[in-house]
Each structure stands twice: as structure tokens, then as C-alpha cells.
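sry for the spam today, last one i promise. C-alpha cells for design, 128 residues
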């Protein structure tokens, strides 16, 4: 990807993140750019400040979009680990439902959570 394409992808992911939060009734005020991380074109981890004064991590890209309070992780790297573990637990609960459509989503969560954990564990991605 060219630099311009990477910037476009990042802008699009920001829009995905803020629209997702809006569907949850959460309005974005600003982004903590220095603490957010992007692995173009795979994922973006946004640290977003909300209008109500709270802060959230939002994960989006080639995976399900999700969010959690910043209280769950001090950094984008730790946020990846949080989402990986959260999705493993969600998948386990979905498998128990024994519903075909739920099992398909559970399998997606498992595969994406494993990928997230590999990214979390890759030291070369996190060197300053």
C-alpha cells in the first residue's frame, strides 16, 4: 500500500470505530493518537475519549469491532491481549449454545483471538 492508501485506511477505521460507538450510545470527543496503534491493513486499536469524560479502547479492522473501558489495559498492546482473552470467553459461551450460526461466529472469534494474541506476543511490533 502507498502512504496515501495507508492514511485512507486509517481514516476509514477511525470512522468505523466512532460509528460503532455511536450505535452503542457513546459519542467520541477526541482520539489519543499517541496511544493508538495501527497495523495496516489488519487492525486499528484506538484510544478514544468520549463526551462523558470516559475513555475506551476500540478495536476494528479485519476482525469484529469491539470496545472496552481503558481501565482493562494500560496500553494498546495490553488491549489486544484483553480482547483476545475476552473473545475466547465469548466463544466458549457461544459454543455452549449449540446453535449453528452461533458456532460460526464463535469459530471466527477463536481464530481472530488467536491472531490478536500472536500480535500481542510479537515483541518486534512493540519496540519504540
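last one done:
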Amino acid at each position: 500500500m502507498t502512504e496515501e492508501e495507508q492514511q485512507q485506511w486509517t481514516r476509514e477505521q477511525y470512522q468505523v470505530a466512532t460509528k460503532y460507538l455511536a450505535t452503542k450510545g457513546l459519542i467520541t470527543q477526541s482520539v489519543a493518537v499517541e496511544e493508538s496503534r495501527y497495523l495496516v491493513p489488519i487492525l486499528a486499536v484506538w484510544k478514544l475519549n468520549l463526551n462523558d469524560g470516559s475513555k475506551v479502547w476500540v478495536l476494528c479492522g479485519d476482525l469484529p469491532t469491539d470496545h472496552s473501558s481503558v481501565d482493562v489495559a494500560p496500553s494498546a498492546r495490553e488491549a489486544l491481549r484483553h480482547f483476545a482473552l475476552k473473545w475466547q470467553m465469548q466463544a466458549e459461551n457461544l459454543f455452549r449454545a449449540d446453535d449453528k450460526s452461533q458456532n460460526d461466529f464463535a469459530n471466527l472469534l477463536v481464530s481472530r483471538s488467536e491472531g490478536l494474541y500472536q500480535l500481542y506476543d510479537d515483541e518486534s511490533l512493540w519496540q519504540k
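The chain has a mean pLDDT of 95. ok im logging off now
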